[in-house]
Amino acid sequence: MRGISGLTGLLDSARVKIPSLAVFAVVLLAFPSIADEYWTDVGVKVLLYVVLGLGINVVVGYAGLLDLGYSAFFAVGGYTTAILVGNYGVNWWLTLPIAMLVAAIGGYLIGYPTLRLRSDYLAIVTLGFGEIVRVTANNLEFTGGPDGVILPFRPVLFGYELAGTQSMYYLVLVIALVVGLGATSLTRSKIGRSWESVREDERVAEAVGVPSIRVKALAYVVGGVIAGVAGAFFATYIGIVSPTSFTFLTSVLILLVVLIGGRGSLVGVFLGALVVQGTPEVLRSIGDEWRIFLFAVVLIVLMFVRPLGLWPARTRRGARLAQSAEEPPLPEVGVAPGEPLLEVRGLTMRFGGLLALNDVDITVGRGEVLGVIGPNGAGKTTVFNCVTGVVRPTAGKVVLGGESLIGRHPHQVVQRGMARTFQGARLFSDMSVVENVLVGMTARMNSGVLTSLLRLPAQRREEQRAGRQARYWLDFVGLSDKATRFARELSYGDQRRLDIARALASNPLVLLLDEPAAGMNPSEKADLMELIGRIRDRGVTVVLIEHDMAFVMGLCERVLVIETGAKLTEGSPYEVQQDPRVIEAYLGVDEDDEGDEDADGDLGAGPDDTTAPTLTKGQ
Amino acid sequence: MENLTRRLGTGIALTSVALLSACGGNGSSGGDDGSGPIRIGVSAPLSGDSAAAGTDIVNAAKLAVKKINKEGLLDGRKVEIVQVDDACDAQTGTAAMRKLLTQKVVAVAGGYCSGAVIPETMITDRAGVPFIADASTNVEITERGLKHVFRTIGRDDKQSEFAARYMVEYLKADSVAVIHDNTAYSKGLAEATKDTVKKLGAKTVFYDAITPGAKDFTSFLTKAKSTKPQAIYFTGYYADAGLLLKQAHELGIDVPIIGGDANQDPTVIKTAGRAAEGFTTTTAPLPDFIKSTADFVSAYEREYGTEPGPYAPYEYDAVNVLADAIARAASADSEKITEALHATKDYAGVTGPINFDEKGDRVHPIYVTAVVEGGAFVPGKKLDESGNWVDAKG
Amino acid sequence: MNDFLQYTLNGLTVGAFYALVALGYTMVYGIIRLLNFAHGDFFMVGAFLATGVLSLLTGSGLPSGLVVVVALVAATAAAAALGGVSARIVYLPLVKAPKLSLLVSALGLSLAVEYGTALSQGTGFRSVPHIGFLSAEHAIGLTDGVRLTYAQLGVIAVSLALMIGLYLYVTRTFTGTAMRVLAMDQDAARLMGVNVERTIMMTFIIGAGLAGTAGTMYALYYPQVNFLMGFLLGLRAFTAAVLGGIGNIPGAMVGGFLIGLLESYATGYVAGRWTDVVVFGVLIGVLVIRPSGILGERVAERV
């Protein structure tokens, strides 16, 4: 790299940035007049792969769903257009929205039943879906069997036929730009952040208010629509749609566009498409076997040199910190201060033969700070998990402000006003600090896909307000100066505070804190106590699990002791500390031992979840 | 931010360079410029599973050009082959055609997989460049009313008629099984055979597709066997045929098994071993079956040191009939060549007299059977003009 | 009934190949969470090497049984060596890299092995010499018309023996235990003194060796090899591994035999052209009901 430092230095200044963009644009525009028909044709295919790359980037790059059957959507779009134009003589322009719609339905159909699967299983399911689509098209009559469907018509725009290589080039260039802009608006909105949060940690995303299943299905639908557009253009350009164009290898090539280019970046997608569709043409003269062999070697070497691809997404991410802060008003609730806000009755949780919780009752008054203590493995986090809908309790009632929460998904619980933090602060580590906070607001934001895509005024106002509120919460916890860092770069204490800010961002009535002080030094603990005090002063009800007795004593009016899944006692911190049963329960237990029942686990959903993976003897 | 700018700048610079350096030629496309060599495009699969067949086709074309240049063609201009790889794939094939057009070919002779040739001919026809198919038999190629498409080989519906008559009339089979592999060529031939079998008053009792490359067809054959066919016609490719024969033998299937013309390959015999004995193919006459091809075969062997493949004579004829048309048109203009091709009358090709009907199809293509005996294909039967089955040799 | 028996027999034979290859997928996945696309190509290399040895030694006067054993050992060793070298050069340096980067490397390796073979061995189909005692004449008559050939019996028996051997190895030996510990938690394994690099290498070597053995038997049973032959089989074996529960050794065996049977019955009772649709349809159906496959456990995904 040092060798070309002169060049990069030259290109460094902003003075050069605009001109170089302009040069790039000129090259793109002038390309068909410089190149001959053949290279223009290569250009069209590169641009089609740019479009496909943008689509799979949403699915794989943003939402993190490994898709090995993406060509299925490409096929669905292509066949829809080919059949409508070729067999029914429908105007090509009319088929475009239909192809998008059918591909979207395809995305939903594959997405919905499979979204609970982990990504590697998703890989084989998508692969299978791709094969099913291809084989079905090959077998059915109305898709033309292996011959495929021939399209006699060419799109006509203002009386000008668009099937020539040059006009097609410009048409696809426009489409690539439109899709690129659309994808950018989406990925910079609430929806894009939701995708990324799901990619980072699906369960945590759900637990902080992201409707993860819907968000993932949406990624498939958006990815499907984009592939559908590409398919419609491909069909009319090639003039025939047949099963051989949509094999597993096609899916792999499209996937490679993103993986070579670098996920999550527009420039990366362009470079990836250039490599995947362009280099084979440049190398065609050296013979097919050598060409593919060299391509393979380059792929392997590339992953050593740039494991994230040629041009991964920016290193400093996303929304900048808003200039001004706006304090969100505390939501209304029909419960007077001091009256019971959260009521838990008879909470029982069984994991197989293990009784993790047995008939636990908890009542928390509005504005109260309740401490929950108990030895390791007592079931404290399981209480949180049951209350927030991460696991469904075997029996019992959970009522918040008069409304039952049993059977609600975690994100719905957040919507109804209860947020939580995690042991060991599970942040979205590859997202920025401010983005983490913005994800916490998802449950309180209303903009949908279309408004985000078109960046309608209402959506922009909502995004701006969210930005100001994020600023407020970062100010509140004291992280504003680190807002644009990656979450993973924060110190341990800062990560804890960000976890709290992310939970607060949903503007909850009740905040559940899971061992917030674990591993902190005394001065950090003092800061944290002060912070929790301010949260209480805002009128937020707080329930906290903590081992540190001094910490609990300093904050809580009331303490609940849980042992082996049942409530041992309850009372003021002083009463509890004097209770011989509590002393006995804690005897021999190191208070500072951080490992609770699920320190390693998922959200500590119980033994079932923490079972060690793989290479076991079977069951 | 600075970092971003720098990388953006570098990337744009590199991309621009890449894009610019990628552009070789210039300007407009298509058509002969009246001087220099006359260029004829040859498209064939030069990569993938069918690469061997593709190489054979290109070799035959080169051999023809060598002969043409020795004899001289038009105003002392040489003929030159421009070969492109279509990889048996629609997308690669259309790109290959665009490449040929930019190289100003006056005509194209070649092709192998129908699935690629169908879209390829759409491109050449729009450009007014004639395309002579040497090996692609799918009916669709000449059924679309394209003016600039011809072929020197017979269509699937001709081969299927021959195959059906061989099974129903010669072998006296009342019930047959038809097996394809779900590719465009194979399914086309299978469908047409099924229709003809019905017309001849016999029944197709089993009709299904194997997965090419699956290697184990035992269950498939078990099912076919249970329908008790009196003959089996396989329209897939030779790579699967050897294993199919071996497994049929192991299952004790003892009815005649006949293969389409894509099975004419020694690999079948090597893979199936003794199970290949008696295996019959329906094919255009092989080079060593026809007297007129003897010179071609020996010339090919002298040039390349191996025997020509089944489609080599058809490609040889395709290029020669093209040269004949150029000579008669006294022009290297694509449209004039097309006119001349339509007017071809009894051109003496190595595969017999060549005439094109109004669709561009060859009139009266000849078919024969070849049978495996003693580990090699030997001539079987053919239909004479009065519809009697006679020995194919001679 | 006869047909059903024949379908079953055939499904088991094909399933044995799937199961053997699926084991390699499952072991590697269990250890480093990698879908090793090149695994089917290790199988192909084994088949090619066995073909070479058989071509060389058939007709040399050696007893055919010995020739087969030599081919088996040579192909297994070669595939195992290729697996080890691949792990060392391509995968080990990337163990800490993002999962998708590893996936790209695996795709690259797969293409490199395929086209390296094509460059050195040609792109055509090569026939494998026939071995007398493996021909269909040597068979046990089960019912009227249905016979179990010695070759089929051999394929099923060798596969089962290898699977049981592998199972014992993984559960009873030190290296096997190290593999299991590594599968659970790489950092913990390191702390416990497991040599992580060596264990990963061993996993690749064993998995690829099994694929090499499978490749040899495949070449003997379906006497024709080609540089792309590992692709389709690898895909099916991968499907089998997932169906059984990827990462789980008995799961791979169950998955392999199930896919083999499913294919066979689908061909017999539905239609050959719909086999893939039936197989993948069932796979998707099973995963929707049991998201971790038949024998797989619910595993928390680490990011």
From TrEMBL, chain A:
Transmembrane segments: 21-40, 96-115, 168-187, 217-240, 252-278, 290-311
Domain (ABC transporter) ranges: 342-589
SUPFAM superfamilies: P-loop containing nucleoside triphosphate hydrolases
UniProt superkingdom: Bacteria
Compositional bias (Acidic residues): 589-601
One matching Pfam family: ABC_tran
Protein name: Branched-chain amino acid ABC transporter ATP-binding protein/permease
Classification via SMART domains: AAA (SM00382)
Span list, region Disordered: 588-619
Topology relative to the membrane: Multi-pass membrane protein
Lineage: Bacteria, Bacillati, Actinomycetota, Actinomycetes, Kitasatosporales
Molecular function per GO: ATP binding
Location of this chain's protein in the cell: Cell membrane
Swiss-Prot/TrEMBL keywords: ATP-binding, Cell membrane, Membrane, Nucleotide-binding, Transmembrane, Transmembrane helix, Transport
UniProtKB/TrEMBL annotation, chain B:
Family matches, as Gene3D superfamilies: 3.40.50.2300
SUPFAM superfamilies assigned: Periplasmic binding protein-like I (SSF53822)
Residue ranges occupied by any Leucine-binding protein domain in the UniProt entry: 37-375
The keyword Methyltransferase is assigned to this record: no
Keyword Phosphoprotein included in the entry's annotation: no
UniProt keyword annotations, A-Z: Amino-acid transport, Signal, Transport
Family: Belongs to the leucine-binding protein family.
Protein name, as recorded: Branched-chain amino acid ABC transporter substrate-binding protein
Naturally occurring in which organism (per UniProt): Streptomyces actuosus
Automatic annotation (TrEMBL), chain C:
Chief place of localization: membrane
Keyword Membrane: yes
Cellular compartments annotated: Cell membrane
Keywords for the protein's UniProt record, in alphabetical order: Amino-acid transport, Cell inner membrane, Cell membrane, Membrane, Transmembrane, Transmembrane helix, Transport
Transmembrane segments: 12-35, 42-60, 66-91, 100-118, 150-170, 200-221, 277-296
Lineage: superkingdom: Bacteria
InterPro entries referenced in this protein's UniProt entry, alphabetically: ABC_transp_permease (IPR001851), BCAA_transport_permease (IPR052157)
Pfam families: BPD_transp_2 (PF02653)
Membrane topology: Multi-pass membrane protein
Keyword tRNA processing found: no
Family: Belongs to the binding-protein-dependent transport system permease family. LivHM subfamily.
Protein name (record): Branched-chain amino acid ABC transporter permease
